[in-house]
Every structure is written in C-alpha cells, then in structure tokens.
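4.2 Preliminary Data

To establish feasibility before requesting continued support, the project team ran the inverse folding procedure on a target of 534 residues. The structure was first converted into the token representation described in Section 3, and no sequence information of any kind was made available to the design step. The complete token record follows.
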C-alpha cells in the first residue's frame, strides 16, 4: 500500500510550468559512476535504479543544512526515528503528513544524524522510482515548485521528498563527502588549485552585489575556473553568475568548450545573468552542441540576452532532433505570444509526442490567434484525455465566442480531466454565466476538478463565490486549499481575512505562504481605497 495522503497531485498546466524554464542538467552518460546496491526488497531490485554518484554528491552539496538553533520539531522526529518507527508511523504519531516527516528526515540526515527510511517500495511504486530520480536529476532534490508544476497525474506530491530522503539515507557517506568538497572549494587556505599566472585578471576582485555574495572569496572562485574538477568549475560558474561582474565573462566563455555538459550548462546560465554582448555569439554557437540539454539551455540564455536572434532560434528549435530542445522552444514561445509561431506550432502538435503536444496546445492558446481554433477544437475530441484537457484550457485564452460554447459543453464531460480543463478555460474566459456550475464542482469527488474550480472562481471574480471558497479552505487536498487561498486574495473581500488568518496555521508551508500573501493583498486594497470590500 502506497502512501499518498489520499489524493493524487493535480497537474498544473504547461502554462504555469512555462513561466520560468529551469536549467536542464545532464543525466549520467555511462554506468561508470552508477551505484548498484544489494537487494532490499523482494518487490524490486535496487540495481535497476541508476544513481550517478557525481550528480548525487553535487545535489547534496546544494541542499541547505539546519541552523545551529532549530525548532524542536526536528528533535521530536529524530527521537521517533531512533526508536525504530517508520516514516509513516512517525507521521501518524505526530499527526503530520508523511511529506513533512520526509522533509524533517532530509534536514536531519544532512546534519549527520543516522536515519534509515527503510525500503523505498513502502512509499513509491517500483515503476515510478527511476522516473522520479530522473526528474530530480534535472530539477534537483529540493525544487518543490517544479514538482508542483509537474504535468503527470500518476505521482503523489510526497513521493518526491520521500525519494530524496531515501537517497540520502541509503548513501549517507556522500553527505560527508559533499560537505567536505563544499568547504574545500570555499576555503582558499585548504585549496590546492593554482591559477594561471599569465592571466592578470585573476588578481582583480569582482564586485560583491548582495548579501549572498559579499563574503565570497573571489580569488578562490577564479582559481576554481582553472580547476581540473568539474564540480569546482560548476561551483565557480554558478558563483560568477551570482556576482554579476562582467569580468567573469571570459572565464565563463572558456567553460563553454569544456567536455562536461553540466559545466557548459552552468556557464550558459551564468552568461545569461551577466548579459555581456561579447558572449552572445558564443551562446548562439551552443545551439548546435552535441548534447541536448546544453542546446536547450543555450536556447534559454539566448532568448534572455538577444531577443531577435532568440526568436528565430525558437522557431528552428521546433524541428530539433532533441525532444528537450523542442519542449524548451515551445515553452519559451508561450512567453512571446508572437503570431508568427502559430503555423510552426500547429505542425509540431500534429507530429510530436504527446508531452510536447500538451505543452504546444497551451502555448498555441496563449498566443491567442483565432487561427488556432480549428486545431484546438480537433484535440478537444482526442482519444487521449490529457490532450483534451490541455486543448480545453488553451481555448480559454482565445477571445472567440466559438471557444466559449465548446467549453460550456466540455465542462459536463464524463471524464474528470476534461471537465478540469474546461473549468480552467471558463475561468480564463471570465464566464460569469458558468459561476453556479463551477461552484458546484468545489465538492467534486476528484481533487483535480475541485482545484480547477477554485482557480477559475478567483479568475472570474465577484462576490457569489466568496463563501463557497471560504468553505473550500477546509478541503482535504493541500493543492485545493492553496488554490482557494489564492483565489480569496484575488477576490479581495475583507470577510475572507479571518478565515485566511486561520490558514496561517495550516500544515502545508505553501498554503501558509499564500495565505499571508492574500491577507497582504486584501489589506493593500483597503489602504488604496480607504475601505475593505465586503
């Protein structure tokens, strides 16, 4: 029996995912660094999981540790682990969610405590495990925003954090290794690296721009640019990007030719932040890199620094042989809303895989051209419900009466996914006539439908949905509660303040965060208008 807190993740739309394309990092290119562990479960052979040591060490290094003074809740969790209780048992004893205990376990492991999660098969189906690890290889072990925006129905939200905790507990020796590597890189007295004596720029300190970089030893950063270690070079590239000094451009440009794809990726991201014109041609050259993720990140960087060349590259990316490049191009085109992309996108949607079709349909809708209507209508009747769902949402972006009629019909579909997409589309259309029907879906048996209804009511606006949304703050699904919290802030009525204040004590940190934001928004309306809307 797998722990899912009773509900599946309701997928965010590709639109939400596309707002900020993440850095695509390299998966292992060989089995040289693959850890093959002994079998711990009769259900699943751990040797089937490919876990790259270099990646995991670097990922661990980036995770924040507990401060010297931390909340006693961590000690309570640690005490129960030491008594031999499982993660699920601790969650039940402490009346917390397994996801929260998994986060505690990650922090405790990083601080050197000996915790065992046990067999991962207790929490994550064997068929999902490698797919979650592959996702984490791209987005990191703690990128919760990317997890929440993941486009799949079949994953539980807590499975990602439990997998991260399990990886750390199974490979505790890497925690001390990553900590030592991190300290060595940042301490010039311990460093054995030597800088190029012929390069005088190394002697000049770079500008410290904020509190995260003001204490950085710049000489150490520059020495790491010449290090023989890929991990050192990657840290140097990341730090140079954060420093924001244009004198970091030349070492970063040199890193674009490194044989490690992840070094090239980090250099591209840093050059994107620096926006030094002399680097633009070098960034553009990486659009033809032999590694798909490097090409994808070059596409992201070029679109941030050179809009004209970037758009032309986006159109070309739609026929790139690498799936990840095509997907990145589709997402970025959603930000441009340039009608020149309509026909290339339609062509891609008809020929690409289902995942890119889904993202492409949403992007096509965002562009908002009526030329897309026939294609979106066609996919609204597709045999794949996920494509139907995306087509329905995409129709919400079109200012077209025909689209509104289709959405009103689709909201009554027997399949929950299609209803969810249609409801989101009606919310985007701000269809007042559908408010009663959408309110009724706040009590649907499907969390994805309730989530879409809560989001749509916030987008439509008005007073009729105020109290139904307040009641939805008690929903058992954390994503539904979060959507209701956001929508109440959008409505802006002072009657929501007391219920929102209670949400500041919700078990989920993101619900608490959104509640605080919504409270601030409502109070700001009061200051501007001189009164609360009631």
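Position-by-position output of the design step:
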């Amino acid at each position: 029996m797998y722990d899912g807190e009773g509900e599946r993740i309701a997928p965010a739309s590709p639109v939400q995912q596309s707002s900020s394309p993440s850095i695509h990092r390299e998966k292992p290119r060989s089995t040289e660094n693959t850890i093959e562990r002994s079998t711990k479960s009769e259900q699943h052979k751990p040797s089937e999981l490919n876990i790259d040591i270099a990646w995991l060490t670097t990922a661990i290094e980036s995770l924040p540790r507990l401060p010297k003074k931390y909340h006693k809740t961590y000690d309570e969790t640690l005490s129960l682990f030491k008594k031999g209780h499982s993660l699920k048992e601790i969650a039940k004893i402490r009346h917390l969610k397994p996801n929260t205990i998994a986060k505690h376990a990650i922090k405790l492991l990083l601080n050197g405590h000996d915790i065992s999660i046990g067999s991962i098969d207790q929490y994550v189906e064997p068929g999902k495990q490698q797919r979650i690890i592959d996702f984490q290889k791209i987005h990191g072990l703690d990128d919760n925003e990317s997890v929440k925006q993941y486009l799949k129905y079949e994953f539980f939200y807590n499975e990602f954090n439990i997998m991260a905790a399990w990886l750390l507990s199974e490979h505790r020796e890497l925690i001390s290794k990553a900590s030592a590597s991190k300290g060595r890189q940042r301490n010039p007295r311990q460093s054995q690296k030597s800088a190029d004596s012929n390069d005088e720029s190394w002697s000049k300190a770079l500008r410290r721009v904020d509190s995260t970089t003001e204490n950085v030893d710049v000489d150490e950063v520059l020495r790491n640019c010449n290090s023989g270690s890929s991990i050192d070079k990657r840290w140097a590239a990341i730090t140079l990007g954060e420093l924001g000094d244009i004198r970091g451009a030349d070492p970063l440009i040199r890193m674009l030719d490194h044989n490690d794809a992840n070094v090239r990726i980090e250099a591209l991201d840093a050059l994107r932040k620096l926006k030094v014109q002399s680097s633009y041609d070098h960034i553009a050259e990486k659009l033809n890199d032999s590694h798909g993720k490097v090409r994808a990140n070059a596409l992201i960087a070029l679109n941030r620094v050179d809009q004209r060349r970037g758009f032309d590259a986006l159109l070309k990316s739609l026929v790139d042989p690498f799936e990840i490049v095509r997907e990145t191009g589709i997402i970025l085109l959603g930000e441009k809303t340039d009608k020149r992309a309509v026909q290339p996108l339609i062509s891609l949607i008809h020929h690409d895989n289902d995942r890119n079709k889904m993202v492409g349909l949403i992007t096509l809708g965002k562009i908002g051209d009526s030329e897309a209507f026939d294609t979106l209508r066609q996919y609204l009747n597709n045999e794949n419900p996920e494509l139907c769902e995306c087509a329905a949402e995409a129709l919400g972006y079109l200012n077209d009466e025909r689209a509104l009629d289709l959405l009103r019909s689709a909201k009554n579909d027997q399949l929950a996914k299609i209803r969810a997409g249609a409801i989101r589309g009606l919310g985007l259309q701000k269809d007042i006539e559908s408010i009663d029907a959408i309110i009724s879906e706040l009590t649907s048996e499907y969390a994805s439908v309730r989530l879409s209804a809560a989001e749509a009511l916030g987008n439509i606006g008005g007073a009729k949905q105020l109290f139904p949304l307040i009641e939805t703050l008690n929903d058992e699904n954390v994503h539904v509660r979060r959507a209701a919290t956001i929508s109440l802030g959008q409505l802006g009525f002072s009657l929501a303040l007391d219920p929102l204040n209670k949400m500041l004590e919700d078990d989920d940190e993101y619900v608490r965060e959104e509640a605080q934001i919504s409270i601030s928004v409502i109070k700001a309306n009061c200051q501007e208008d001189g009164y609360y809307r009631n």
